[in-house]
Amino acid sequence: MDLEAMGPKTTFSALHDFCAERLGAPSAARLVRLARPGFELTQAGPGEAAGHSRFGGRAMLEPGTPWPDCEGTPLSLLAVLDTDALAPWLDDLLPAGTGLLNFFALDSASERADPAAFEPVPWSAAPGFAFPDAWDPAWGTVDLGSVVDDMPLYDITALLPGWPEQPYALHADDLAFGWPLFPTGSSPMLPDGEESSHYQHLLQLSGQDEWWIGGDSGWMHWSIPTGALRGGDFSRTVPTPDIW
User: Fold this and answer.
1) For residue range 201-238, what is the model confidence (pLDDT) as tens digits?
2) By C-alpha distance, which of 36, 23, 19 is closest to 141?
3) pLDDT band at residue 113, thresholds of 50, 70 and 90?
4) Could you give the CA distance from residue 184 to residue 180 in angstroms, rounded to a whole number?
């Protein structure tokens, strides 16, 4: 199934049909409100890169923009997302002209002070849809009634048998947009106890034993209030580790 050729609206319709076959139309209509478009990020082969999207390397900043630091310590550039290559799947989520998003972190765990510490790895981006993690409070915004009466957690694989095998199901370690996965079994920490449903996930990175940054067993997540994203105010982007 060529999801990019089908487009997000056609693929979302296929997702709705898949849910309805298993849960019935009313519950499916409520469930798919939680589905968000996103991308699995994997190392790109020749000609497969999603624009300038990549892990590591040097930042791609506007001329004259200083390299960010924390109290004089240079931050490490972890990733770049090329939103021009990703925007068609995101259905007007991003404002026009967003361009490149650079993701930085203070790499205190590995004691690397060199801001070009990570070798660049170009990414390919496979589109699909994601649901919240089983512990995410966003599940409280939908009423699935008797469908989940016997479920202690909102496990999407239990709700939808066969979900991981669907071509539009996102479940990679490295993800752009969609919903984050919290592998240590908690939910995201957000400023002032804000609801995760009011935030849009931007990027999840898994250290995979190669680096350890952040409080989530080396995983990193970034999110932004949805209103700020639509308005292009990326100054409100925050790291969203879980409570581990």
Assistant:
1) 999 988 766 666 655 567 888 999 999 999 999 989 98
2) 36
3) very low
4) 12
Strand 175-177 and strand 73-74: pairing? unpaired
Beta bridge partners of 146: none
CA dihedral 94, 100, 101, 105 (to 10 degrees): 180
Q: What angle do CA 240, 59, 187 make, to 5 degrees?
A: 10
205-212 LR contacts (CB < 8 Å, sep 24+): 205/55, 205/78, 205/79, 205/103, 205/174, 206/173, 206/174, 208/173, 211/107, 211/109, 211/110, 211/118, 212/109, 212/110
118-144 per-position pLDDT tens digit: 889 999 999 999 998 888 888 888 887
Q: What is the chain's alpha carbon radius of gyration, rounded to the nearest angstrom?
A: 18
Buried-state track 172-197, b at ≥16 Cβ within 10 A, e below 16: bebbbbbbbbbbeeebbbbeeeeebb
pTM: 0.90
Helix (H) or strand (E) holding 187: none
Residue found by looking up tokens 């490490």 in the block: 76
pLDDT of residue 166: 93
Let me know the angle formed at the C-alpha of 91 by 171 and 131, rounded to the nearest 5 degrees: 25
Name residue 77's beta-bridge partners. 104
- The mean predicted confidence, pLDDT, of the chain is 84
